[in-house]
Every structure is written in structure tokens, then in C-alpha cells.
Task: inverse folding
């Protein structure tokens, strides 16, 4: 078997006449940080949505861990180990930071109606087992002091961290981050980059969409460039940086 | 703790008002009022599960109340309105009630399956429409439901269980023993439902519903089946609505198509908003206050009109309830018992 965890074949999606995504072939190799860049409207987020099954593709197939997941529900995909975040941060505003984490970590069985109504002892045990993991994750993200605050009271950057922390409660095999640095101050951005690198060192595959080119070039093992729905370049950061097509489409205007 | 003091004072004020404003038969007014308040409160608790917990906009609660009530009544001995067809056999009431609750939950499932996959507003539209379709079907299927003439003579199934002390009390205070019995059962049900719900609210299931209320996509991204969670919530709230509908028709002693008109749903929403969306006891408290206002409008109408007729009374009621909701929206959007930190009335 190949050593890619995720692979995509001939994935297309159109909105009316506009072809938003048309990706012939795309793989994520095990244990890499892959960044997806491209100008606005290149189809990065739509591509994300297609992979995570938040949108239905018009055609094409998606394989996750060599299993065809082209028709799998988004939440089933998350259970299989593919967890995503969102470009506009989505925390549960009117729940506390701690509850956000608890919800992410609690098992499906515990959330069953009858279990919640009747089976209290095993439930307490399971919830108790979460505490340590939640505390550790919150400490790693510097959110521990805020654990009893409502999520909406957090700053934008902290919300990003909470969303990341929530995803980590799922023990993902691949983490898809949609602009993890957007709207985050430079210091916190460095912090987040460090966390991402550490997660990758622990064996979590990362695929992220990000506009901060310097950050992307710094931490990525591989950079994929999209323009007008297609992948126009794919390789190590240095290769992509000097790729003529990329400079034309994207980097040329900002870097040169 | 402040809001609980407010709530207690309001309750005391309400009771005092009833007994001070009615020279004769105040006990009778009181029992009538707490019966309706109980029924509306129970119904509002159902909507609270939908809206306060899960963020589902249900504007067709009357249909859930109605189908629970009709299913129960049709399964016990009853007579059909105009022809007076007497059906003297039937299931024991407790079993009929269970079927009634199941019917309400199933209607919830039926409405929820196609709509809960869509955005929230669609559910609001579908529930309004479904409630009207239900009412019109009930009106037109006269052979089954008695249509506009309704169903009568089913109360005995409940009243045979009436314990002796209820009769003793009702004789002493000159109130209707049948109604007092319905009131007692309704409020016992409210307490039981609140106990069950408080358990659920603190549980992982309740937490999951709140997460759905906050952000469905994030719920899906975390591997949880948001549609299934919404369906469960919808069915639970529908069943609670069904229970309140059953008590409503036992309070009337009859049931017609016109019992479950759309305005019933909106009165229940009013009670929920007054009491506090998202809180456990709020809906019941809101229902009491709502009914005291309804009773109080009579005396206010007498100030405005020499001898108010039904239409004028209804007009004044709408004005006062509407005004009160507006004032609440401005000064206390969380209702009397709602948590300020969890202001739940800002629909996305």
C-alpha cells in the first residue's frame, strides 16, 4: 500500500458556470506539514470542504487511509480521524471553554439519550477520564486560566487556539486547518506555528490553508499552490518559491 | 440569587392579585388559572427543549399538543361530537397517554427528517404549515375526529383515578373537583419533567444539544451527528408538548379542531419568553404570569370600556401581552429566570 494517508482523484466542483475546484490528483504523504496556498478565490476553502465532505463534489473520489470516503458523511469522516477547523472560527460561544473541550472529547456512547438519562456511574467515569486530557491540552495552548470563561469572551486568537484544542481532543490522524493564523497577532502566530510543528512531530498529519507566506515557507514540508481551482505547483517550499507559474499567479505581486 | 427573589415576589404578587381582585369565587379563579398555567407551562417546557437547548425554531407546537391529545382521547372510551357515536371500549388511560406521547414524538420525527438537514428558518416555516395542516385535517376527517363538533365524554377515564382528598378540598373551597384533579396532575408532571430535564441538561447529551445550538458545522467537524441530535431533541420536546395537549383537553373535557389554533403556539412562546428561554423553571413561571395577565386584562378592559365584549377583551389581551414582551425584550431579554450570560433570544 502507498504511504499516503489521503488521496484525491479528479475532484471537481462548479458553482453555476464557475469551476471552483478541479483537482486531478492530490496526495498527502504520511507525517508531513502540507500547506495549501493560492490567491483569493483559488478554491482552497472549497477544496477543503470537499475533502472533509462539508460540500458534495460534482465528481471524483476521495480516499482516506485507503478507504473510499467519497460518500461518507462529514461527521463519520471526523470519527475516522480527519478533523478540520474553519476559516471563520467556530467555537461554541455560549458554552465555557471547558465545556467546548468536554463536548469535543466525550464519546458518542456517552452522548446517547438513554445513557445520559440512566447510566450515571459509567458516565461519570468516562467524563472523569477526560479531565486530565482537557487540562493538559488547555495548558499547552495557554488557555487553562480561561477554562471557566464563556468562549465568546475569548480574543480572536484565543478562539483559534480553542478550536485547535477542541480538534485535538479527537486525536486526529490528519488535521485540516483553514487559515490558523488569520487575524492573530505576530507573537501568537509564532506560538501557533510552534504548536503545529510539535503536533506534527507527534505524528499528526497537517494540511493547512494559510495566507501568511513567510510562515508557510518556514514550517511546511511541502507547499501546494492552487489557482483558479487547479493545482499549479506542488513541492518543497524552495521549489515552489522559484516556480515561474507560482510567481505569475501569486507570489509575483507580493514578494518581488 | 436576585432573579429568584424577583420570581418569588412576582409569584406572590400574582396569587395576591387573584384573591384581591375577585371578591367571590377567587378559589375557583385560582384553580382555573393554575390549570391553564400548568398546561401552557408544560408546553413551553417542550418548546424550551427545542429552542432554548437546541436552537430549533418550532412555531407549530399546537400540532404536537394536538396529535398527543387526539391519539390519547381516541384510544380511550369517548363519544364523537355531532352523531354522538359512543365508543365505550378502549385502552386504560396510562397506556393511551403513552401512545399519545409516542404519536407526538413520531410527528416530530416526520417533520424533522426532511427539515432538520436544512437551515433553522425552514423548520420554522414547516412547523407553522404543519400545525395548520394538522388542524384542517382534524376538522375535515369528521368520521374519525368529530371535526368541528369534536370529541366529548372522555374525561371519566381520568376522573376515575381521582383520589378522595381532591373531592374533600374542592367541596371545602367550592372549586371544580375535576379541574383541580387535572391541575394537580399537570403540576406533578411539570415537576417530574423538570427533574428528568435537569438530569439531561447536565448530561453529555444536553451538552451536545447546546453545542448544536451554538454551531452545527463545528459539531459535525468534531465527529458528532448534528442531525440525529436535533431529531432527538425535536422528538423529546414534541412529546412534552403532547403531554400538555392531553392535559389541555382533559381540562376542557372536550376537544375540537379549534382547540389547537396557531395562536395557542404563540401564547406558549410568550410564556416562554416571559419566564426565560433556556432555564428549567422559567417556562412554568412565565406561564403563570401570562395567565395572570390574561385574567388581569379583564379588569383593565373594564376601565377602558363600559361593558367589554369578547372582541374588546381579546384586543386588550393582545395589546398587553405584546407590550409586555416588548418591554422584556428591551429591558430583560433573558426573561425572569434566564441566564444573562446565555442570552438565548438572538436567533442567528
Result:
Amino acid at each position: 500500500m502507498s504511504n499516503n494517508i489521503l488521496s484525491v482523484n479528479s475532484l471537481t466542483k462548479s458553482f453555476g458556470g464557475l469551476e471552483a475546484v478541479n483537482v486531478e490528483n492530490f496526495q498527502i504523504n504520511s507525517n508531513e506539514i502540507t500547506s495549501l496556498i493560492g490567491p483569493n478565490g483559488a478554491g482552497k476553502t472549497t477544496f477543503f470542504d470537499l475533502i472533509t465532505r462539508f460540500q458534495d463534489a460534482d465528481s471524483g473520489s476521495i480516499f482516506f487511509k485507503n478507504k473510499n470516503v467519497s460518500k461518507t458523511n462529514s461527521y463519520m469522516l471526523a470519527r475516522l480521524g480527519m478533523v478540520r477547523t474553519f476559516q471563520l472560527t467556530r467555537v461554541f460561544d455560549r458554552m465555557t471553554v471547558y465545556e467546548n473541550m468536554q463536548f469535543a472529547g466525550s464519546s458518542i456512547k456517552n452522548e446517547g439519550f438513554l445513557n445520559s438519562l440512566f447510566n450515571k456511574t459509567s458516565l461519570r467515569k468516562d467524563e472523569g477520564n477526560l479531565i486530565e486530557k482537557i487540562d493538559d491540552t488547555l495548558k499547552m495552548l495557554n488557555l487553562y486560566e480561561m477554562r471557566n470563561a464563556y468562549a465568546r469572551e475569548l480574543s480572536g486568537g484565543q478562539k483559534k487556539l480553542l478550536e485547535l484544542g477542541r480538534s485535538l481532543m479527537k486525536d486526529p490522524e490528519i488535521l485540516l486547518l483553514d487559515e490558523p493564523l488569520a487575524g492573530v497577532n505576530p507573537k501568537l502566530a509564532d506560538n501557533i506555528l510552534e504548536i503545529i510543528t510539535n503536533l506534527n512531530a507527534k505524528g499528526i498529519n497537517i494540511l493547512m490553508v494559510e495566507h501568511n507566506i513567510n510562515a508557510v515557507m518556514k514550517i511546511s514540508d511541502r507547499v501546494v499552490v492552487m489557482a483558479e481551482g487547479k493545482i499549479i505547483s506542488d513541492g518543497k517550499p524552495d521549489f515552489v518559491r522559484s516556480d515561474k507559474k507560482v510567481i505569475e499567479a501569486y507570489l509575483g505581486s507580493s514578494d518581488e | 440569587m436576585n432573579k429568584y427573589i424577583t420570581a418569588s415576589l412576582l409569584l406572590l404578587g400574582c396569587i395576591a392579585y387573584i384573591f384581591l381582585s375577585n371578591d367571590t369565587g377567587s378559589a375557583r379563579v385560582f384553580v382555573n388559572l393554575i390549570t391553564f398555567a400548568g398546561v401552557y407551562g408544560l408546553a413551553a417546557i417542550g418548546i424550551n427543549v427545542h429552542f432554548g437547548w437546541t436552537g430549533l425554531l418550532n412555531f407549530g407546537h399546537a400540532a404536537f399538543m394536538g396529535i398527543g391529545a387526539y391519539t390519547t382521547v381516541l384510544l380511550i372510551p369517548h363519544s364523537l361530537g355531532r352523531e354522538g357515536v359512543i365508543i365505550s371500549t378502549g385502552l386504560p388511560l396510562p397506556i393511551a397517554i403513552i401512545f399519545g406521547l409516542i404519536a407526538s414524538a413520531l410527528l416530530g420525527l416526520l417533520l424533522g427528517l426532511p427539515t432538520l438537514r436544512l437551515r433553522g428558518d425552514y423548520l420554522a416555516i414547516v412547523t407553522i404549515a404543519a400545525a395548520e395542516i394538522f388542524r384542517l385535517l382534524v376538522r375535515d376527517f369528521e368520521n374519525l375526529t368529530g371535526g368541528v363538533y369534536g370529541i366529548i365524554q372522555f374525561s371519566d377515564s381520568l376522573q376515575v383515578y381521582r383520589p378522595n382528598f381532591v373531592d374533600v378540598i374542592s367541596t371545602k373551597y367550592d372549586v371544580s373537583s375535576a379541574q383541580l384533579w387535572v391541575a394537580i396532575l399537570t403540576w406533578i408532571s411539570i415537576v417530574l419533567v423538570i427533574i428528568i430535564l435537569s438530569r439531561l441538561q447536565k448530561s453529555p447529551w444536553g451538552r451536545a444539544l447546546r453545542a448544536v445550538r451554538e454551531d452545527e458545522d463545528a459539531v459535525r467537524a468534531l465527529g458528532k451527528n448534528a442531525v440525529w441530535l436535533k431529531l432527538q431533541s425535536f422528538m423529546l420536546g414534541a412529546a412534552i408538548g403532547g403531554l400538555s395537549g392531553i392535559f389541555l383537553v382533559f381540562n376542557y373535557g372536550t376537544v375540537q379542531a379549534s382547540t389547537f389554533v396557531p395562536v395557542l403556539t404563540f401564547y406558549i412562546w410568550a410564556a416562554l419568553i416571559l419566564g426565560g428561554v433556556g432555564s428549567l423553571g422559567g417556562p412554568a413561571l412565565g406561564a403563570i404570569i401570562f395567565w395572570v395577565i390574561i385574567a388581569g386584562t379583564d379588569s383593565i378592559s373594564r376601565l377602558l370600556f363600559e361593558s367589554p365584549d369578547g372582541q374588546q377583551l381579546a384586543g386588550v389581551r393582545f395589546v398587553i401581552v405584546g407590550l409586555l414582551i416588548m418591554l422584556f425584550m428591551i429591558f430583560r431579554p433573558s426573561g425572569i429566570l434566564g441566564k444573562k450570560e446565555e442570552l438565548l433570544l438572538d436567533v442567528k
Notes: Residues 4-91+172-255 of chain A form a domain with the Rossmann fold fold (CATH 3.40.50.300). The radius of gyration of chain A is 19 Å.
